[in-house]
Amino acid sequence: MGKLELYAIDVSAPCRAVLLTLKALNVPFEYKLVNLMTGENRTPEYLAINPHGTVPTLVDDGVVLTDSHAIITYVVDKYGTDDSLYSKDLVLRAKVNQVLFFEATVVFDRTLFSIAKPIFTNNTVVPAAKIDAVYKVYEQLESFLQAHPYFAGEQLTVADFSLVATVTTLFTYAELDMGKYPKIHEWIRRLEELPYYAEANGTGLKLYNDVVKAIGFKVLK
Ligand SMILES: N[C@@H](CCC(=O)N[C@@H](CS)C(=O)NCC(=O)O)C(=O)O
């Protein structure tokens, strides 16, 4: 196996999705910390690797991938001892992809990134409409889980890793009412039982909460 390098920081949800996947696969890798808070993602050295200046970035023997969804599917295909996390079956794979695209375009971009980017760049006033968008996402997620325990069906897949990292981070801004969203709540409990969950998602999430608490934010009605 070649040398696998992950450029990341634990506070970032897409980085935690990659950590969950690498830990699930038990693949060794070198963690290269990129501190977004001190602008390490904007250095010429880092931009030479990832011109977007974002994390995560995976470097695998010269192959560079700069999107968490592309990374987690690639590592399962390449390093998985079986395909359970990202099935090779046409339909099952399409179901996983459907959720990954939903995470990338709706959940992450429309809610988390849109709320967090201004907060982390000195605009701590969050318009109420952005919080409403989070609750709309919770409704959609709850409906995904009506028919089966995981987002792409009966089995745990990388779609769950991608979502759980972002969704648990959204709780910082919009609390999850367990009575209203019981399926999401049960799904999170299920993921928390994974032996690598606390290390891969829990630690970074706690750090994220501490950072946001220290910065503070206000919802504008
Ligand atoms: N779609 C990308 C999103 C990556 C992304 O936006 N990462 C954020 C951290 S959560 C970042 O690097 N932000 C730095 C910046 O925008 O300058 C993925 O899933 O990997």
Total tally of structural domains? 2
What is the class of the largest domain in the CATH system?
Mainly Alpha
User: How many strands?
Assistant: 6
> How many H/I helical runs?
8
Oligomer: single chain
Helix residue percentage: 55-70%
Could you name the ranges where pLDDT drops below 50 across 5 or more consecutive residues? none
Pfam families: GST_C, GST_N_3
InterPro entries: Glutathione-S-Trfase_C-like, Glutathione-S-Trfase_C_sf, Glutathione_S-Trfase, Glutathione_S-Trfase_N, GST_C, Thioredoxin-like_sf
Domain GST N-terminal: 2-83
GO molecular function: glutathione transferase activity
Polypeptide structure, described:
This is Glutathione S-transferase 1-1. Homodimer. It comes from Bactrocera dorsalis (Oriental fruit fly). The chain has 221 residues and is α/β, with parallel strands linked by helices. The chain has helices at residues 13-25, 44-49, 68-79, 90-120, 128-144, 158-170, 182-192, 197-215; strands spanning 4-8, 30-33, 57-60, 63-65, 125-127, 218-220. The chain folds into 2 domains: 4-79, Glutaredoxin, CATH 3.40.30; 90-220, Glutathione S-transferase Yfyf (Class Pi), Chain A, domain 2 (Up-down Bundle). It has 8 helices and 6 strands. Strand 1 (4-8), helix 1 (13-25) and strand 2 form a beta-alpha-beta unit. The protein starts with a strand and ends with a strand. The relative contact order is 0.15. It binds glutathione. Glutathione is lined by residues 12-14, 36, 41, 53-56, 67-69, 104, 113.
